[in-house]
Amino acid sequence: MHHQTVIVVGASSGMGLAAARLFLERGATVWMVARDMERLQNAASSLGSERARVLSADVGSDEGRARIVAVAPQVDHLVITAADLVYKPSQALCEAEVMRAVRSKVVGPYLLAAACAARMPEHGSITLVSGVAAERPIAGGSVTGMVNGAINAMVRGLALELAPIRVNAVSPGWVDTPFWGQVASAERREQLFAAMRDKIPTRRISTVEDVAQMIEVAMTNKAVSGTTLYVDGGQRLV
Ligand SMILES: NC(=O)c1ccc[n+]([C@@H]2O[C@H](COP(=O)([O-])OP(=O)(O)OC[C@H]3O[C@@H](n4cnc5c(N)ncnc54)[C@H](OP(=O)(O)O)[C@@H]3O)[C@@H](O)[C@H]2O)c1
């Protein structure tokens, strides 16, 4: 990854931040992208690298994607962990809420992948993050299941169309990230994680570092394209 440029959309938090940290350790220049500039700058400072660059942009908007594409004349790898999801029963959802999730996790990443591929060398790669809700949704999380399933399907078609650039999905199980602050109190989250820890085959909740490592595999293994790499401790089986 030395001397290569990686764009990470969703890099101010959770898995995206862990991925940015790993790629900087590997010697890459990393463009860290998210919407909230202050959080992004704090995240970049925490990494302490001159090769970390920041850009505030919304992957769900035309204007945001245009700014992401414009930052680097050549991009070696694109990683998208961003998601702006909604947790509610389907009958309580309005179209705007559903579309916000779909724009951030499906339509935006799809269009950004296509646009970035045009600036990528043949060894380039695109890695999207889906998630266990595609196979094991929870009640109130049907939109998350829908968008994750769309990503797993999307990478197969894009791998054919954008070849020889490789396109893959990484699918995590539950991971302790700031995302959980949006859906459960700290106490409730601990209860849910404890119950899941007892149930899943690995008997541990996966970490952001586990996910970053799998994203690196998707980026660097030249034989991996058009597939979903599961990093869920076997959660989709239980
Ligand atoms: N955590 C889990 O248990 C879990 C499980 C399975 C799958 N996943 C998936 O894994 C991915 C990463 O999750 P995480 O837990 O690391 O999330 P997180 O900690 O909430 O971080 C999300 C990141 O995406 C950015 N973002 C959100 N919407 C964006 C947009 N429209 N444009 C640009 N950036 C945007 C956020 O910053 P701003 O808000 O400032 O833009 C933030 O940097 C997501 O796709 C999530 O659905 C998570």
Provide a brief overview of the structure:
This protein has 238 residues and is α/β, with parallel strands linked by helices. Helix content is 43%, strand content 15%. The chain has a single domain (5-176, 207-230), classed as Rossmann fold, CATH 3.40.50.
Q: Report the average pLDDT across residues.
A: 97
Low-confidence stretches: none
From the 3D coordinates, which CATH architecture would you assign?
3-Layer(aba) Sandwich
CATH class: Alpha Beta
SSE series: EHEHEHEHEHEHHE
**Count of DSSP E strands?**
7
Give the domain tally: 1
User: What is the count of DSSP helices, taking H or I runs of 4+ residues?
Assistant: 7
Rounded to the nearest angstrom, the radius of gyration is 17 Å
Strand content: 15-25%
CATH superfamily: NAD(P)-binding Rossmann-like Domain
Backbone structural class = alpha/beta
Strand ordering within the main sheet: 3-2-1-4-5-6-7
The gross shape turns out to be globular
Listed once per kind, the bound small molecules are: NADP nicotinamide-adenine-dinucleotide phosphate
What CATH calls the topology is Rossmann fold
Q: What's the assembly state of these chains?
A: single chain
The end-to-end distance, rounded to whole angstroms, is 36 Å
Description:
The structure is a single chain. By secondary structure, the chain is of the alpha/beta class. The protein has a single domain (5-176, 207-230), classed as NAD(P)-binding Rossmann-like Domain (Rossmann fold, 3-Layer(aba) Sandwich). Helix content is 43%, strand content 15%. The protein has 7 helices and 7 strands, in the order E-H-E-H-E-H-E-H-E-H-E-H-H-E. The chain has helices at residues 14-25, 37-47, 62-71, 95-117, 142-161, 186-199, 208-220; strands spanning 5-9, 29-34, 52-56, 77-80, 125-129, 166-172, 228-231. A 7-stranded parallel sheet has the order 3-2-1-4-5-6-7, with helices on both faces. Strand 1 (5-9), helix 1 and strand 2 form a beta-alpha-beta unit. The protein is globular, with a radius of gyration of 17 Å. It starts with a strand and ends in a 7-residue tail after the last strand. NADP nicotinamide-adenine-dinucleotide phosphate (NAP) is lined by residues 9-16, 34-36, 39, 58-60, 81-85, 104-105, 129, 131-132, 172, 174-175, 177-179.
